[in-house]
Amino acid sequence: MNTEESDLVLWPDPDTMTILPWRPTEGRVMRMYCDI
């Protein structure tokens, strides 16, 4: 089985959530790490 055929699930880690400070206040962008 290759990665195209497997079922991969991302589990977000809310402790790693960060609002990126160099973006404008409208349409903010955040970063969050996930476990596979």
TrEMBL record:
Gene Ontology BP term (one): glutamine biosynthetic process
Pfam families with a match to the protein in the record: Gln-synt_N
Family matches, as SUPFAM superfamilies: Glutamine synthetase, N-terminal domain
Gene3D superfamilies: Glutamine synthetase, N-terminal domain
GO MF annotations, alphabetized: glutamine synthetase activity
Segments traversing the membrane: none
Ranges in a coiled coil: none
Matches recorded under InterPro entries: Gln_synt_N (IPR008147), Gln_synt_N_sf (IPR036651)
PROSITE patterns reported in the protein's UniProt record: GS_BETA_GRASP
GS beta-grasp domain segment(s): 1-36
Name of the protein: GS beta-grasp domain-containing protein
Originating organism: human gut metagenome
